Amino acid sequence: QVQLVESGGGLVQAGGSLRLSCAASGRTSRTYAMGWFRQAPGEEREFVARITWGGGQTYYADSVKGRFTVSRDIARRTVFLQMNRLTPEDTAVYYCALDVAGTARYDYWGQGTQVTVSS
Prior knowledge:
The protein contains no helices and eleven strands. It has strands at 2-7, 10-13, 18-26, 33-39, 46-52, 58-60, 68-73, 78-83, 92-99, 108-109, 113-118. Strands 2, 4, 5, 6, 9, 10 and 11 form a seven-stranded mixed beta sheet that branches. A four-stranded antiparallel beta sheet has the order 1-3-8-7, with no helix packed on it. A hairpin with a 6-residue loop joins strand 4 and strand 5 (46-52). It is globular. The N and C termini lie far apart (40 Å).
């Protein structure tokens, strides 16, 4: 089993920055990629960013491209999401997820961390 624990959420003013972390523990040896998703109240969960564990290739939703940066620390088994120039539309619960086989069908999910951006 794999456990994912997010941290770093909070309240920030529009234009500000936050850095989310997601620490993985357990049987993480088979990790192809990790991703970040978010879900705003009344909305469906949406993809935010993804990073492959071995090569470090990154992918972003158009809505965050140029503002968010996903990175990973392999030794610490941690993935980060640096969020800059935040807007109220970024307010959501942010989840990290782990993709074991590279199918983009994420196998494990964290419990989420709240990000609130005030105008």
